[in-house]
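debug: dumping io for the single-chain case to check the tokenizer round-trip. Nothing else runs in this session.
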Amino acid sequence: MSESKVLSVEDLHTSDAKWVKLKKTTWRDPDGKQRPWEFATRPTRASGGVDAVAILAILRSESGAFAPSTIIIEQFRPPVDRYVVELPAGLIGEGESAEETAIRELEEETGFKASNIIRTSPLLVCDPGMTNANMKLVTVDVPFPERLEMPAQKLEPGEYITARIVEISKLSAVFKEYEKKGFVIDARLSHFASGFEMAETLRQMQP
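debug: decoded output
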């Protein structure tokens, strides 16, 4: 299989766009002055008001056979013309909850089946200066009685996703390996790894 790459870029009229629309709004600042703003929207938003989920899967051994781990994915993202390392994610379907989407998308993209939901974040925005796209981060529990095994993915046609298991404590070191290969790291995944490291640093600083 050949490596993915962007072949051309051209302007797209918003009326011809399927997944993203460009809008112009006028807002009033604290001084009462009206100001224009341009931003992108998702026309696929369901009636529940949430666009998508990102999934943090906690892979854990019930017997202590392996360290707490998670699943990350690699896929080519044309807007940045790079391979990106990120959390499993997906759009929420009409009539579907964030938790239902998380369980479904995790199994499709990685093959793992979550046993239960650990927590669901409040509504989150990723780049509020550029888009009104929003999401929720759903953390799920994936326990194993003994050995950790990689299941088969259930990808749809046209999906090219590589799943990888990584120990949570080693995420930052793995990111450095990816950077050397020209990959970029999704901010949400990076923030999680940074938060984990900071929590460990603060724990060690306690008297």
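debug: round-trip ok. The first strand starts at residue 21 and ends at 28.
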